[in-house]
């Protein structure tokens, strides 16, 4: 076996993020099967089983309300990730990083995309020379404040526009704060720049667009089904008086829903409908669920570790959680 010259030896990169594609596909199939059955056979069977009827009603309601926004968000996210050059945002930002951070965060308002797409887009921005602080602000803001998410929030909370406004303000505040924190305390050795992915160049934009659509739809759809199932289970199995007691304690309710957002990892285009189903919890706790979820959850932490390195994710994810919860509580106290 030929020996490699020492100059050619490179350190092995950190293992990339690997999605449980089979499990997500199973969740999507099971979820849509439950939708079909839930409107017919399960609806009749549930007349004699009130708990099952309630579970089906909540699950079908959340999924059907979320699906149009999920499809639209995935489509626009694929368009942006494939067709919009990262250098456009770089050219539009101020030269001073302290000013570039809030501008990059605000750019998420006009650039739709789910949190799955925001990680590779942020990596492309850094590869093309954008400093880490504004790139990370964009990474956090884009899936949380884009127009698809804001419209979905307004639909999920009819007659309560303050929920959409609070989500916009709290998410922008958290993304900007994390960008400034990285600018002040971040170290270059914590962040590994991702290598260039040549797939889009080798196979063309049409193939890259199809792959992005397939990836995001499978990923987001699987977690949407999981989140809807969890929300329906909580609403049916957990006694109402327990939820009322828990929801009445402001601090505890915020912590519980924030940790739940990290665990269930629901796509940002659909999480407002799940949050709205937790009617026993305070509006501030619901806001925390919607602010934390698009910025830090189990899948995002894994993606960040695979893209930027474990040293980065181990510091960035916990800090983001604390900042997101603090911003949600501060804005919720004022606006809600």
TrEMBL record:
Location(s) in or outside the cell: Cell membrane
Membership in a protein family: Belongs to the UPF0718 family.
Keywords carried by this UniProt record: Cell membrane, Membrane, Transmembrane, Transmembrane helix
Domain of life: Bacteria
GO cellular component, one term: plasma membrane
Membrane topology: Multi-pass membrane protein
Record has Cell membrane as a keyword: yes
Transmembrane regions: 21-42, 54-86, 98-123, 135-157, 164-183, 217-238, 250-266, 272-292, 312-335
InterPro entries with a match to the protein in the record: DUF318, UPF0718
Designated name of the protein: Permease
